[in-house]
Each structure stands twice: as structure tokens, then as C-alpha cells.
Amino acid sequence: MAVGPVDVVIIGFPGNKFNGDVAPAIMELVSSGTIRVLDLQFIIKDADGVVASIEIEDLDEFGPAFMEIDIVQPGALDHTDAEEVADDLPLNSSALLVAFENTWAARFVAACQASDAIVIDQIRIPADVVNAVITAV
Fold it and tell me: What are the per-10-residue average pLDDT scores of the chain (137 residues)?
């Protein structure tokens, strides 16, 4: 079975202003076959610098929306990932780590492998950078 490349996206929420809008967007990507969520991890750093990982079911009103997402490899993101992100996380903020397979690319990957092609490099340009360039033009 061909698989697509995996990305880990770290989404920051300054001031811990987290809402549930991200969950339906992720679910749309899963439903359309664009991605497959391997794991999700929530991290919070309070004003005193205390860091904690938060379980989905402990997200108060936003937890149920995330619980509907099919996570295929729970535990793929672990405490070392949380620690690495927490080091750079500002005080009084939180982050959502999402590890996902780009299932849309599986056919392309299979074609490259069948052609004995190799990936030399991969570059991801963040959407805010693309928007800034488009706006400047």
C-alpha cells in the first residue's frame, strides 16, 4: 500500500485563546481523503511557565469536536514532542500538534517509487508567507 508523506504541524494559540474551529476543518480534510490524522497532542504553558499536555477529553467545550476525529496511531506524538514544543512556547499560550499523512500524495509517491525516483528535498511555504507575497504583488 502506498502512503503519502507525513507532516507534523504545530499550531500556536497565544493567550490560550483556543476555540474548536480547527476540529471541523481537520474533519473536512479527513472526510475528503486529503489527510489521515495519525495523532493529536495539546500542550499548554501557563503564565508561570508550567507546561502540561492536555487529553482531548479534558478540553472542556471543545473536546467533543476533536473526539470525533479518527486518530489512527494514538501515541505517535509523545512527551518528547511536547517537551520540544514547550521549550519554544511563550508563557500563557497553548499549542496543538497534528501529525497527519498526506493521503492525497500516495498515488504520486507510488508513481515516483515505480520510476525509481527519489525525493531530493521538500520545501513547505507557510500560508501566511504565501499570502504576504500575493498581497505585496
Answer: 88 84 92 95 92 78 77 91 91 94 92 91 88 91
